[in-house]
């Protein structure tokens, strides 16, 4: 396996978007600009033979395109091959596994985007690359390969953002409408206070709406009820901790707002189809390392 800079090690990208073998830009906590886009990393490895990363579950987007067959991403029972004739988009908070040991030219971007895909969009998103996108990818690969010092140059940033703008503006991608400010406040409060009670009446007061009006507005913008959404966000954070920490299931339940392990297990299995213990055994990095390699 060869990299543009000797000694770089591909450590994957789990909680942080920096893989160790890409050009690093803004970290996760940087707020997006007016476009809603934040570029984290742009990468191209001409001979990437290190593509085995189990239990990837991260708070940022990924865009992949490979020059040849040989690498895959696994979503549940769905095996998606990374090929020259497709761009693969993976939204944040999707559990998947990277599989493949053959040396393959690999291009990727890691980024954040303020918009959310419509819940009915199947994942991952598979797009046939258009000429404009292929030209931008070729230019980016040349810029990255020529960047001997791994500097986050303005040329790489602008080309990366141009590619993302072109891909994300494609008409076949259905986006949820932007959140009204009242619901944005509630959304941010939920994300920051998972361990506290988050009943609909309290959230409605925070939004300045009646409970009935809040429930209608929430359903219209999130395509689900407030209670279901809170459960899914709690389960999402619990899943991240199950995969990436050694905390006990009881501690994870308490930290994500569940009153006890039994209730947590019921809700977690309802959302994911697996108990917390089975999820950790099946998808944790250590458990999967032997199966993938």
How would you describe this protein?
There is one protein chain. This protein is of the alpha+beta class. It contains 10 helices and 10 strands. The chain folds into 2 domains: 146 residues, Jelly Rolls (Sandwich), CATH 2.60.120; 112 residues, Orthogonal Bundle (Arc Repressor Mutant, subunit A), CATH 1.10.10.60.
Comma- or semicolon-separated keywords:
293 residues; alpha+beta; Jelly Rolls; 2 domains; six-stranded antiparallel β-sheet; 40% helix; disordered N terminus; disordered C terminus
Write the layout of secondary structure elements.
Layout: E1 23-24, E2 37-48, E3 53-56, E4 61-66, E5 71-75, E6 78-82, E7 87-90, E8 96-99, E9 104-113, E10 125-127, H1 131-146, H2 154-168, H3 181-192, H4 200-207, H5 211-222, H6 226-244, H7 249-255, H8 261-272, H9 276-283, H10 285-292
Antiparallel strand pairs: 1-2, 2-9, 3-8, 4-7, 4-9, 5-6, 5-8, 7-10
Give a brief description.
This protein is of the alpha+beta class. The chain is built from ten helices and ten strands. The radius of gyration is 20 Å and the shape is globular.
**How helix-rich are the residues, as a percent range?**
25-40%
The rough form would be described as globular
Structural class: alpha+beta
Low-confidence stretches are 1-5, 286-293
Report the CATH topology name of the largest domain: Jelly Rolls
Distance between the termini: 16 Å
The rounded Rg comes to 20 Å
Beta-strand proportion: 15-25%
Q: How many structural units, i.e. domains?
A: 2
Order of helices and strands: EEEEEEEEEEHHHHHHHHHH
Under CATH at level 1, the class of the largest domain stands as: Mainly Beta
Mean of residue pLDDT values: 91
CATH superfamily of the largest domain: Jelly Rolls
Number of helices: 10
Query: In this structure, how is the largest beta sheet organized?
Result: 6 strands, antiparallel
Number of strands: 10
CATH architectural type of the largest domain: Sandwich
- Strand order across the biggest sheet? 1-2-9-4-7-10
């Amino acid at each position: 396996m060869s990299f543009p800079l000797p000694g770089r090690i591909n450590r994957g990208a789990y909680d942080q978007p920096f893989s160790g073998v890409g050009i690093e830009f803004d970290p996760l906590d940087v707020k997006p600009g007016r476009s809603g886009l934040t570029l984290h990393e742009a990468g191209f490895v001409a001979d990437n033979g290190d593509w085995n990363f189990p239990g990837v579950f991260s708070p940022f987007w990924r865009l992949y395109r490979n020059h040849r067959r040989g690498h895959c991403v696994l979503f549940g029972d769905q095996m998606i091959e990374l090929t020259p004739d497709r761009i693969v988009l993976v939204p944040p908070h999707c559990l998947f596994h990277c599989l493949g040991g053959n040396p393959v030219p690999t291009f990727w971007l890691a980024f954040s985007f303020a918009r959310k895909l419509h819940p009915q969009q199947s994942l991952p998103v598979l797009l046939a690359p258009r000429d404009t996108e292929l030209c931008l990818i070729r230019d980016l690969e040349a810029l990255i390969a020529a960047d001997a010092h791994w500097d986050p140059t303005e040329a790489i940033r602008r080309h990366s953002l141009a590619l993302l703008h072109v891909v994300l503006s494609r008409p076949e991608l259905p986006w949820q409408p932007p959140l009204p400010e009242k619901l944005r406040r509630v959304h941010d409060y939920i994300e920051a206070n998972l361990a506290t009670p988050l009943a609909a009446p309290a959230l409605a007061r925070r939004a300045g709406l009646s409970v009935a009006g809040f429930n209608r507005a929430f359903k219209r913008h999130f395509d689900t009820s407030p209670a279901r959404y809170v459960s899914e966000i709690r389960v999402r954070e619990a899943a991240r901790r199950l995969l990436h920490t050694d905390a006990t299931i009881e501690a994870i339940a308490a930290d994500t707002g569940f009153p006890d392990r039994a209730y947590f297990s019921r809700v977690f299995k309802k959302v994911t189809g697996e108990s917390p213990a089975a999820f950790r055994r099946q998808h944790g990095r250590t458990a999967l390392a032997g199966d993938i390699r």
